[in-house]
Structure prediction request, 656 residues.
Amino acid sequence: MRTITIDPITRLEGHGKIDIFVNQDGEVENAYFQVPELRGFEKFCEGRPVEELPSIVTKICGVCPGCHHMASGKAVDAVFGVEPTATAKKIRELFYMAHFVHSHIAHFYALAAPDFVVGPTADPAERNILGVIAKVGLEIGTEVIKQRRIAQEIQALIGGHQTHVVMNIPGGVKKGITPEQRDDIVKKAEGFVEFSKFSIQLFKDVVLGNKDYVDLILNGPYSLVLHSMGLVDKNNLVNFYDGKVRVVDTTGNELYKYSGDEYIDYIEERVEPWSYLKFPYLKKIGWKGFIDGQDSSVYQATPLSRLNAADGMATPIAQQEYKFMYETLGGKPVHATLAMHWARLIELIYSAEHCLELALDPDIIGTDLRTPIEKIVGEGVGVVEAQRGTLTHHYWTDDKGMVRKVNLIVGTTNNNAAICMSIKKAAQGLIKKGEEVNEGTLNMIEMAFRAYDPCFSCATHSLPGQMRMILNVRDQEGNILQSTKRG
Amino acid sequence: MIVVETSVHSGSILMLGIGNEILTDDGIGPKLIHDLDKNQFPDHIVYQNASLGGLELLEIIKDFDTVFIIDAIRTLKNDPGTVYCYTPDDFKETLHLSNLHDINFLTALELGRRTGMKIPSSITIIAIEIEEDRVFSNSFSPVIQKCYPEILSTVQHMLEKLMPVRTIC
Prediction:
């Protein structure tokens, strides 16, 4: 047995690695993705007033603090048995749409576009956002920075701080939006809509206009036939802030639709001895192993699975693009991992359009910001869609509202099993007996991982740093036969 | 050219601590920013804390002339408490300068330059070797707690020496 180790050399030596096991015949037998554990969050929260948690959880992770703040705010509402006012709910959602715009722009231009605009096996020195703007124009780089900054400004305005958000309080939000602020947000949201339309057109021109890329998406080693999860509204349309969790099977038929507080009846977490990160699966099916297909209990919670799990998008342009994607890719559901990038751009359009809709809603400048608290229920669950998957916060308190216990299932954790399987499948398809494993191959394996937009800051631990990778092919004695570095 | 050898700024200065204050030693950057004896520095320095890298950092540092970044690092090659000083030319990836969901720090700087942003002419990265950043806690690990006064003193003196001088032509 030979071992190929893809080691993302990150800020912490030894944090996170991919081991690919190759047999004597040169075929990939298995792949393991491992990240170390971040410990003690539950203990850190114990004994604190539960209403402090929405502000504390923004410090779990600097990548999606707004998602944790929203899930936490909803869980705290539930602990106090209170429903936010209509205005408060819309203000929260408006903030959240800006958060999605900000994050999805970053992923597409900084992480996804280099593989397609510059090329999956291009010189790594050029395969980055600088290479992207060299190809598509400097003004696009300027616009990326500008739109992200504007999204941050909206978050800071509504949330109190762009990262360490403090807006949510039990039953509502701390402050409202003035008519002047609303007018400013409307203008900014109009810019989001235009930029999101431009972004999906860029995707169509560069990716769909290239037969090789379409072939890679549809026929490359990047497809996994798994069940799909996502939050939907009462019309079964994609929703990031509210609604029910819907799971459809590999053929698109609804398996379950449940309220957030019922998650424990549907989701179980498996522990594997080789991984700190747990592996959630569909409880009613039971753990069947790392297999895909209709019998599997592994699911995906990604932009693509959200679209698979829903009947459509709630805004007009996003819905048009939703229909076009499924028509182009042969109908629902789609299981092509790389199509997650396309789905993410459709979600970008939805976020932009919905941001504008909310800003134009007369309720958004309402002054009824909070429903009074009258009781302490003592237990609450908050579920939202984070950019990288369904996010669940579950809190238990004593009768004074002091935290007794906390459980989180974060976006990336939902996809842990699927990420491992995607890496294995890509490695099996790309590493061939007798062929040298070069940097381009490494990157193409990493593309399977990158499509999920994984973030381990809250799943276990962050992996900041550019994804420098070292791939070693070793003989049975551990001697390095071939070594490839990237980054 | 006259060089004024005092702690007078040559332009706008940012002193930025980055790290997570509830992740044991990870929060050493923000803690140092809080504890520095600011009387020893020019009055108009902007002190700020953040926990992000990549493009986010670019947005924070743009438009300043001089930036000092204080961050945690784990090289595992030196004892916890070791203080390093880097510039972008001899750059080492500290804990927060880059981010998996974003671009790395040097790419961010180059992106800023190419898109016409005003990038600081001087960037200094002060990094502190830490012991523990995988456990949620608002206290340092015992080893960092013990040597923290020495770290603070070292960083203070380092910054005093590095503080730019004003040039008057």
Remarks:
- The domain at 2-168 of chain B is CATH 3.40.50.1450 (Rossmann fold).
- The helical segments of chain B are 28-35, 54-61, 105-114, 142-162.
- DSSP finds four helices and seven strands in chain B.
- The beta strands of chain B are 2-4, 13-18, 46-50, 66-73, 83-86, 122-129, 166-168.
